[in-house]
Amino acid sequence: MRMMRMGAALMALLPAVAMAQGPVVSKQTYQLHQKLLTLDSHLDTPASLDLPGWSIDEEHDVLHDFTQVDLPRMKKGGLDGGFWAIYTPQGPVTIEGFRKARDFAILRGLSIRNMVAADPANFALATEAKDAAPIAAKGKRIVYMSIENAYPLGEDVSLLDTFYAMGVRVVGFAHFAHNQFADSSTDPSGKPRFGGLSPLGKELLKEMNRIGVVPDASHSSDQVLDDLLALSTTPVLLTHSGCKAVYDHPRNIDDAHLKALAARGGVIQMNAYGAYLRASKPNPQRQEALKALYGQMREGAKLSAEKRAELLAKRQEIDRLYPDTDRPSFDDFMKHMLHALEVVGPDHVGIGADWDGGGGVVGMEDVVDLPKITAALLKAGYSEADVQKIWSGNVLRVLAAAEAGKAQ
User: Fold this and answer.
1) How confident is the model at residue 298 (pLDDT cuts 50, 70, 90)?
2) What percent of the chain has pLDDT over 70?
3) Which residues are CB-contacts of 318 (< 8 A; sequence separation ≥ 6)?
4) Phi-psi map region of 136: left, alpha, beta (phi>0 left; psi -120 to 50 alpha)
5) Calculated CA dihedral for residues 31, 33, 35, 41, nearest 10 degrees
6) To 10 degrees, the CA torsion angle through 267, 272, 275, 281?
7) 323 DSSP β-pair partners
8) Which residues form the signal peptide (predicted)?
9) What is the torsional sign of CA 352, 356, 359, 362?
10) Is the dihedral of CA 208, 397, 176, 178 positive or negative?
11) How many CB atoms within 10 Å of residue 360?
């Protein structure tokens, strides 16, 4: 409708725009997509749960409040669920920093559990690989739990048992900066701290293998991935990553690591975070304005509804004054996915778009657009069985392997 309002003068641009927005989804493909068991391995949506006045049960608009996942949109986009992340920003590697991060992470985990408890007709907690299909068969959304950034565990790896009891089954070691467990792929120093996992990180990995938690290497350095592949007794997951052969970014993985990951039974889940898909034209005014705004929004859970509305209005004004005219597209996302599929095949690729954590591209702005992925995979020649593996079979196999490792 917005394209129509722009007038006939833009009609000549429509073929290019349509290509950027991805394939047309036929009724048959949409029905197939709705039939598949679909999981996203990295949902940052728990951050939305604590926003004032925001409800997961109500439909929201990505162009208004910039959120990307809620129950109505999950139903429209055929997303059965996924791994809901307890994300904690990296703070100081100190006793006080660990304490604050621990408390924040526990509260965020409780927010996820409360979401399920408040609406048992629509959400169900999953803790084993076998739980997913029965939950989806009942028409409910699947809620696995994960941790992005192990920083809140402090220096006590036994604290992982507490989060396991809460429901956590996947844990990533680091985020944007080095911490006590591992080197980050994007630390501001540009230099490694440990050259992979720290001694404490190796202890954490042992504990993960012992209790049945999947190791997640996304955000960690290539050397951390090397250590995980060498030391983990169960397969490794990249919950939201891309391909370095398509775009050479530290957050992406080269073909040699992809092959090593697959050889150990691991899986790469493809990210839709635009900055990791391709280079974009610099927009310094927009970046400065957003930086200032995000500084005000860091304490989002403590904001009043009125203050949040004010900050959302400022974000919309930034979009008006400094529009992002060179955003990566659905085609850019698919280039990474199709490359990974070419390198390691459909047994080792999945989907972790980083919704509500920076993911989303032109043509796939929120989870309503997910059937386009199914359409693109079918168009590329992948079978229905392949697409089912990509959407959930592979990540569930890795989870089942972690469970089996625990049993052994």
Assistant:
1) low
2) 94
3) 286, 289, 290, 293
4) alpha
5) -160
6) 140
7) none
8) 1-20
9) positive
10) positive
11) 24
Closest CA relative to residue 143, chosen from 109, 107, 105: 109
Angle at which helices 255-263 and 330-344 pack, to 10 degrees?
A: 50
Location of structure tokens 């790896």: 157
Residue 282 neighbours by CB under 8 Å, 6+ apart? none
Distance between CA atoms of 159 and 136, rounded to whole angstroms?
Answer: 31
What would the DSSP string read from start to end of 359-370?
A: B-BBTB-SGGGT
Q: Check if the beta carbon of residue 301 is closer than 8 Å to that of residue 51.
A: yes
Rounded CA separation 271/273 (Å): 6
Q: Locate tokens 């791994």: which residue?
A: 83
Q: By C-alpha distance, which of 5, 61, 30, 81 is closest to 373?
A: 30
324, two tokens: 């992002």
pTM attached to this predicted model: 0.93
C-alpha of 78 from chain center: 17
With CA atoms as reference, report the closest residue to 136 among 356, 366, 384, 392. 392
Query: How far apart are alpha carbons 87 and 105 in whole angstroms?
Result: 7
Rounded CA gap, 339 and 137, in Å?
32
Query: Helix 27-35 crosses helix 371-379 at what angle (to 10 degrees)?
Result: 110
**The pLDDT of residue 294:** 81
Phi, psi dihedrals of residue 356, rounded to the nearest 5°: 65, 15
| The predicted structure's pLDDT at residue 198 | 98
Alpha-carbon distance values, 203 to 172, 216, 232, 283, 353 (Å): 14, 15, 11, 43, 29
> Of the CATH numbers 3.40.50.720, 3.20.20.140, 3.40.50.10610, 1.10.3720.10, which one belongs to the domain with range 33-280+327-407?
3.20.20.140
> Cα dist. 336→62, 248, 275, 292 in Å?
24, 11, 13, 31
Q: Which of 12-21, 89-98, 145-154, 348-357 has the lowest mean pLDDT?
A: 12-21
Amino acid at 352: G
Q: Which amino acid is at 377?
A: L
pLDDT, residue 20, reads 53
